[in-house]
């Protein structure tokens, strides 16, 4: 039994497998599903996929060994797409009609992701761009810079129009966000900056519930807490569950242990 976040306890961090956890949630319980699954990107042959830790794959030498490794990042594209189908179908079941899906990916997996989002029944609406700026990992000379990642967005059926600023709403949501990675705000090998997640969580109505089934260091929960949204963070790896609980506890000004004691 997974307890959903409440007004008093607006962010909960649940330790467990995302598919098992999503299947345990009731139909239509969430306003949005916003997440950053393992990309499983770049492995052309088996050796690429199995012989490197995520630290070796993602971390610059000067920061090596500082953040825990994580699993689920070593599938080939066909397996990754089938697996995405499984969780995207559950995601659609738990999100209310008109609610949002926002899920990150990189340029290699973008076409596979936009296909599988639609196979799972979502209405694909667009691709938001996170511009990591010129500070992103350097490209080879003669290449265009790999300085963007993408947040595919979709809705569960027709899109619900939001109130305008004049009507007391929060105004237009930008489709592109420029934000360099800062070491002080990076708590996961592939963590997203808090300002980027604060931008995205605004697709959920104030006070509404976001589910993040691949929560990592809890950045979606931290952003939700800042923006007055509720959030259920699901993460499988114990060290990241601890980091997420600490971070969310700090934003809410509460003791992580007493707030988020639930373990699958
Ligand atoms: C790309 S990271 C998310 C990072 C996050 N956005 C942040 O800012 O910290 C993906 C996370 O999904 C977790 N994960 C992978 N497979 C999982 C599964 N089947 N169930 C739950 N979590 C899983 C990994 O442990 C990893 O921490």
Structural write-up:
The chain has one domain: 3-Layer(aba) Sandwich (Rossmann fold). The protein has nine helices and eight strands. The protein has helices at 18-23, 46-50, 54-58, 77-94, 110-119, 194-200, 219-227, 238-252, 256-259; strands at residues 11-15, 30-35, 95-105, 123-131, 148-155, 176-178, 209-212, 230-235. An eight-stranded mixed β-sheet has the order 1-8-7-2-3-5-4-6, with helices on both faces. Helix 7 links the parallel strand 7 and strand 8. Helix 6 (194-200) crosses helix 7 (219-227) and helix 7 (219-227) packs parallel to helix 8. The chain is globular and about 50 Å long. The termini are close together. The mean pLDDT is 91. Bound molecules: S-adenosylmethionine (SAM). S-adenosylmethionine (SAM) binds at residues 17-18, 36-38, 70-72, 188, 190-192, 214, 216-217, 219, 234-237, 240. Residues 17-18, 36-38, 70-72, 188, 190-192, 214, 216-217, 219, 234-237, 240 line the site of S-adenosylmethionine.
Helix and strand topology:
Layout: E1 11-15, H1 18-23, E2 30-35, H2 46-50, H3 54-58, H4 77-94, E3 95-105, H5 110-119, E4 123-131, E5 148-155, E6 176-178, H6 194-200, E7 209-212, H7 219-227, E8 230-235, H8 238-252, H9 256-259
Parallel strand pairs: 1-8, 2-3, 2-7, 4-6, 7-8
Antiparallel strand pairs: 3-5, 4-5
The chain binds S-adenosylmethionine.
S-adenosylmethionine (SAM) is lined by residues 17-18, 36-38, 70-72, 188, 190-192, 214, 216-217, 219, 234-237, 240.
Enzyme class: transferase
Keywords: Methyltransferase, Transferase
Family: Belongs to the N(4)/N(6)-methyltransferase family.
């Amino acid at each position: 039994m997974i307890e959903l976040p409440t007004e008093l306890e607006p962010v909960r961090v649940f330790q467990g497998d995302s598919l098992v956890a999503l299947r345990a949630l009731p139909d239509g319980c969430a306003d949005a599903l916003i997440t950053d699954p393992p990309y499983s990107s770049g492995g052309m042959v088996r050796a690429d996929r199995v012989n490197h830790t995520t630290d070796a794959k993602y971390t610059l030498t000067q920061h090596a060994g500082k953040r825990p490794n994580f699993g689920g990042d070593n599938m080939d594209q066909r397996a990754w797409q089938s697996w995405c189908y499984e969780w995207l179908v559950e995601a659609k079941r738990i999100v209310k009609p008109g609610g949002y899906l926002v899920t990150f990916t990189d340029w290699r997996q973008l076409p596979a992701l936009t296909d599988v989002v639609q196979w799972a029944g979502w209405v694909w609406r667009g691709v938001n761009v996170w511009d990591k700026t010129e500070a992103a990992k350097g490209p080879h000379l003669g290449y265009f810079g790999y300085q963007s990642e993408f947040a595919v967005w979709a809705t569960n059926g027709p899109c619900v129009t939001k109130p305008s600023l004049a009507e007391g709403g929060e105004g237009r949501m930008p489709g592109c966000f420029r934000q360099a990675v800062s070491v002080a705000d990076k708590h996961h090998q592939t963590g997203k900056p808090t300002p980027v997640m604060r931008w995205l969580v605004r697709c959920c109505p104030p006070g509404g519930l976001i589910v993040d089934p691949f929560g990592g260091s809890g950045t979606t929960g931290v952003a939700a807490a800042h923006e007055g949204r509720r959030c259920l963070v699901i993460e499988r790896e114990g060290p990241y569950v601890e980091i997420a609980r600490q971070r969310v506890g700090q934003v809410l000004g509460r003791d992580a242990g007493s707030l988020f004691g639930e373990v699958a």
